[in-house]
Design goal:
Keywords (chains A, B, C, D, E): Cell membrane, Ion transport, Membrane, Transmembrane, Transmembrane helix, Transport
Oligomer: homopentamer
Largest interface: A-B, 62 and 73 residues
Strand order of the largest sheet of chain A: 1-2
Membrane topology (chains A, B, C, D, E): Multi-pass membrane protein
Family (chains A, B, C, D, E): Belongs to the anion channel-forming bestrophin (TC 1.A.46) family.
Main location (chains A, B, C, D, E): membrane
InterPro entries (chains A, B, C, D, E): YneE/VCCN1/2-like
Shape of chain A: elongated
């Protein structure tokens, strides 16, 4: 995630970080070269004049903008839903910790449970980012559970099972009544719901065909555009075509980036910082010293 | 569902799988032939000049794009809601399994319940895909229930009834207190809600009239378009008309495809893989060996 | 509701059922006659030339399309919310039936409750479609309740009251513990919520002023359009004007139709079929023989 | 709320009630006079020709329509959310009444509680419409509570407090078990949620700046429009400008009206009728005679 | 938040407060100067004619308006969700107060809890506005808790922990049964959810890249526009360009303002007034005298 104070409006025109320019540079250069060639040749291809005017482009441009607008909308909804689900993990972890800390259970046992919640969030991040299943888990979960998790396909679900066992033991020990146990089980269900929601977003992309249609429309549109503009705006064609194609290509690339919000591209969610935040909040509730809060790096990136 | 890594931007322009070209080929060829004929005849029909300019097309084009944009939006909402409901089946199945595995019930009895949850998901897929009601159910449910399901109209609802009976038996056996029973009943209610939601999407299409109006607008628009463009862009008419009609026809076909997301067309939901994922996750919680995860076939299709 | 397999794309261009053509025929004929008159008179009214060009129409056309798009969106949301509420009735009726059938209550008593749920759905349909309050209720509810319902203003709420009394009797008889009773009360609350939601949609139309403004914009637009087009496209004017006005009028008429989704127009919800589905699903859970499933009539209509 | 059967399409073009014409008449007359002046002066201001063409208006028109479309959408969402919250009041009042009537409590005590629910809805309307806090409350609530409510700032919250006390008394009297009490408390929470939601809509308008920007865009656009059109459509300018400005001004005025849906303008919610409906439904459940249902007045208005 | 009665339509055209003119003045002056220069030089740059027409601007203008429309929508959704979350704090605080006041607990103890709820809301505001953690907390919370909060990173979560301890003490003292305790814990969970939601909105801005792309499109568009218009509308160019750029720049600035709705800019949420409202409502329930309601200042601003 890019986290920086909003620069001055002039500065914002020239900022390079977060502008996606590097990612779409080859496409842009291709379109620019094509536009220049069209201007030099006065729109002729092999001595044959390409008879295009701006008319069809205004027909197509609006339609395409509407469809691209929908794509951005759908991508952003996925991004924001993913963020909401991680927010729910923080909220439910806090709720479970609050209730566990108010039980008449030995402090050590409480602490194991609270750290287990951090372990759940960590394992969920590992699964979503396809890291080794047991990254950063040592110290948060019992050794035998870490072992089991190392080779599991659905590791966070196993940790939820373990958290459920902890509750049953408290219940058997008479430290937890049936009603409070139900409520904590409900919070486990909500954690399970957040996990399932993230798996859904990670496993089900936007329909591939939709991306194909939009991609083709955008590229053919920008490739034909210089032929349509050269007769009316002449030498300004490359500038305008690059401007239009930058907007379209960059928005398409951004949609593609936030479509799968669990990746590590600049605009993806900062899962590491989210896990660190959950860790810090629960440790503060335990009364333990806090690790420093994660800060964006020199490129304003938070991973 | 088409599941493939995003190809290079050049490759994406020419990819054939998932481009819907085969499905709309006849329409496209018809429009292309019509455009060529219009160019050859200079827009004359039986020696009578069709007096169309691009003006009315820009009027209609934007309106039509807005209405088509709405249709895509509504179709995608149906698709995504269906996916959410299947996600809820996974989540609630895991929750029920977690709670069942934490009961003081013999392992065999627990296993019957957990596999019954897989049976519910399987029967739900069978109903939504109109397969024989008992496909793949043997081994997951008791024989007499499979028998009953074979001829049932609402098979998954009967399996929920059976799961409810299992809970009552645990309750009678004193292995489950009233509070925990209520919570598990609640999860059954949520499974029932997911089932009802999928039945709703499957049984209630988008208003048919809406499809008719949009279909007509799209086709008449594209059929008249060559007459409107031939005077200004001449020989480029077929290219532009095919480009416009590809975008409109393909988006309409895609909307039609994801409208009913439970089918087996390329962009529909991969129900088989979803059921396999539920099966694997519950078996992992049982500590049993896992079947291999389903992978897309050579055409990147996951069914 | 119109329920038909999607016809071939050529067929879909000429289908008459569900095209709303009959409903907007008089408007369309008026616009067509006006366009022809304008062409014949070369845009002159009483020897005075109406000086309109296409320019203002492209200004207004897009704005109008956006506002109409919003209207369609809002109407469809009402339609789909209504469908969701009826889906909730099915789901909660199944949940209540499942829980009632798992009680240690005599079968006859259980059956009275389950049929009472069908009675609730039937009474809800009667209220929403303004049919006599007791249509089809005989055999589903006790005679004295049918009597009370016959003259009631809010009949389904009275049936919920009766279902609540049934629960209290089970509780008094010791067949239902407090926790399970609470959960079934919750399902009654959800039925009550679905009822209230449907009453809300039925009683609160879209703001009338909105319909007036859109209606006027659409009609004045189409009436002025021939004057704007006749100079540039001449004899093609009537065709184009009819095409534009068909799209606008038909979409406005469709919005008007699904606005109030409980009516009996072709695109309204098939409440009779929904009630029959609830009836069949509950009877299957009771183990009773099922009535045949409702099928669309020769016009593909399901009421 | 305007509640009338949909008039014939011809009639709808000329209907005056609900068309907002009176409210925006002065603006419309101003724009009409300006247009006529522009036509008479051939677009010259003090012998200086205003060099405007239609081009910039098509640039601005679409952008403005999109922003206005968003405003309408946001206003309608507020309107519909407010309606949903009032629907929730009806539903929860019915639920509480159903559960209270099924208690083993003397009829009189039950009746006091049920009428107290009507009192809550009445007090909520009084607060939202800024009427004297105790309007219509006599006979619904105990005298001392009416006294307290008269000078309260948040009257409905005090009535909820009283309803909670009633529950506690039932519980102390042994007529209500802990579980059922919890469920009724939950319904009180939901009433509290509906109250809080309505307060939120009433106290937080759409950002004022947004209204300012849109208002300015609309008015400057319509004031400049005659200069842009006079050269191409001449004497038709006033007609077209009035048409465009009617659509824009009326939609802006309508948005402004339904923005704050609790007022008493024609398109606002019919809070009086809603309260009367809650009153009638609860009295029917009590088995008491019903007051006549509220009907729209001669102007089709329901307050 | 700007809270003022809607001015007369003429007045609204010239209002300065809330028009964002001061904030975007430098940009506007730059664009105005550029336009004037273009008019004076007849579109020539260093004796070289910039060959731009209005055509590409209509292509880009619509696309840009659609993308800006989406941005406004997303920003407003964040604003409104934040307002809903604060509404939930009010509702749940009232619910908890109602239930606490109905317990058989000494009045003083009840009062400490109710004021603790106000303390939670105050601490939440302090965190969101980055004020010293303990601002205004004295008198609302016990001294040692204020001490702990002063140096905490997640202060409101610690206050929730303390509220949970209060509940446990009531439970241990036998003043609260398990069921009612669960319900109050649920309300604490909902407060925790509102807190987590606000942290989510505060910590996760809209993707930075999206702002960059839109900002660039808006500014390049407005800088090039005078070259495109000067040939057709001549001396009117600066007026029209300023009008277009005011709409685009002001909407972009407004989106930027309500994106982060917890700030102290004019259109941000009035957190101080919201906290004061929660304080007043809870004190009214306690039967204590109320502080005066916060009113907007001379500039109609409520902080």
């Amino acid at each position: 995630m890019i986290l920086r104070p909003r620069p001055h409006w002039v500065h914002l025109l020239f900022v390079r970080r977060g502008s996606l320019v590097p990612r779409i540079l080859s496409q842009q250069l291709f379109i620019f070269a094509l536009s220049c060639a069209v201007v030099l040749l006065h729109g002729q291809l092999f001595h044959w004049k390409v008879t295009l005017t701006a008319t069809p482009f205004s027909l197509m441009g609006v339609a395409f903008a509407i469809f691209l607008g929908f794509r951005i909308n759908a991508s952003y909804d996925r991004y924001w839903e993913a963020r909401k689900l991680w927010g729910a993990v923080l909220v439910e972890a806090r709720n479970l910790a609050r209730q566990a800390l108010n039980l008449a259970t030995p402090r050590d046992t409480q602490r194991a449970f609270v750290l287990g919640l951090v372990g759940f969030a960590t394992a969920m991040r590992n699964q979503l980012r396809a890291r080794p299943r047991d990254t950063d888990l040592a110290g948060l979960l019992p050794m035998d559970l870490v072992e089991r998790v190392r080779t599991a396909r659905f590791a966070p679900a196993l940790i939820l099972l373990w958290l459920g066992e902890w509750l049953r033991e408290r219940r058997t020990a008479g430290e937890l009544d049936a009603i409070a146990a139900q409520q904590m089980e409900q919070s486990l269900n909500d954690l399970s719901g957040a996990l399932g929601g993230c798996e859904r977003i990670a496993n089900t992309p936007l329909p591939f065909t939709y991306s194909v249609i939009l991609h083709r429309s955008a590229y053919f549109y920008c490739m034909l555009l210089p032929f349509g503009l050269v007769d009316s705006i002449g030498i300004m064609t490359p500038l305008i075509v690059c401007f239009v194609s930058y907007t379209f290509f960059a928005l398409e690339a951004l949609s593609d980036e936030i479509d799968d919000p669990f990746g590590t591209m600049p605009n993806d969610l900062a899962l590491d910082a989210l896990v660190a935040g959950i860790d810090a909040s629960l440790r503060e509730m335990l009364g333990e010293p806090l690790p420093p809060a994660p800060v964006p790096d020199a490129n304003y990136l938070l991973t």
